[in-house]
Amino acid sequence: xxxxIHPTAIVDSAAVLGDGVEIGPYxxxxxxxxxxxxxxxxxxxxxxxPAVIGRENRFESHCxxxxxxxxxxxxxxxxxxxxxxxxxxxxxxxxxxxxxGGGGLxxxxxxxxxxxxxxxxxxxxxxxxxxxxxxxxxAGHVTVADFATIGAFSAVHQFCRVGIxxxxxxxxxxxxxxxxxxRTVGSRPAKCxxxxxxxxxxxxxxxxxxxxxxxxxxxxxxxxxGLIEALERIEADGLTDTPEVRGLIEFIRTSDxxxxx
Length: 261
Known about the structure:
Blueprint: E1 4-5, E2 10-11, E3 16-17, E4 22-23, E5 28-29, E6 33-35, E7 40-41, E8 46-47, E9 51-53, E10 58-59, E11 64-67, E12 80-83, E13 88-89, E14 94-96, E15 105-108, E16 113-114, E17 119-120, E18 125-126, E19 131-132, E20 137-138, E21 143-144, E22 149-150, E23 155-156, E24 161-162, E25 167-168, E26 173-174, E27 182-185, E28 191-195, H1 197-202, H2 207-221, H3 227-236, H4 243-253
Parallel strand pairs: 1-4, 2-5, 3-6, 4-7, 5-8, 6-9, 7-10, 8-11, 9-12, 10-13, 11-14, 12-15, 13-16, 14-17, 15-18, 16-19, 17-20, 18-21, 19-22, 20-23, 21-24, 22-25, 23-26, 25-27
Antiparallel strand pairs: 27-28
């Protein structure tokens, strides 16, 4: 099935459209863009290249996807954007290409929901199954792991990491790394409020795994221990036999900016 292009849309002859792609009124698809089969580009969207976009992605009206990075050092060098399959980008979402200094690539995985006015800046790497609520914003070079949720009007500082299954509440300002499996909420300073128990249960984590994560958090948060001592105690107690706890400890130890506690 060939692509369906509205008469008012502008699609560059150098763009590649998969089977069943729909391009809506007044949309612009530029040279260097590849859209996988089944993608829908709504009215007034701009898709700029170089960008490789997988199958069944939906872009509602006025999205700006693949535009140049908002970086004063950027001089027009060739950089790119990669997007997986089955994402939804709601109204006015913006996603920028990478910069040469950041590896030249912005990447988004599959199955994500990006609500209205969400922003993914240059050189960000976003995993699968994420949820970005309205106006959730990433600065450059941010890493967001699989199944993380970024609450409405939240901002993540450049070079920070958001861990797997992390939950950031609305209006959070994250200037350090946000722990996997945990709830981080607040503005200057944000605080971690322990495991995202309801979210983990909904995702199918067993009671045993949830209990181990909670026990690890209690040690990390305990006033009896410094952070290094707490990590050593978690290992001594055998909690790192649970892969999720082992991942939590590794996340903390590999943090460059520090973690929000």
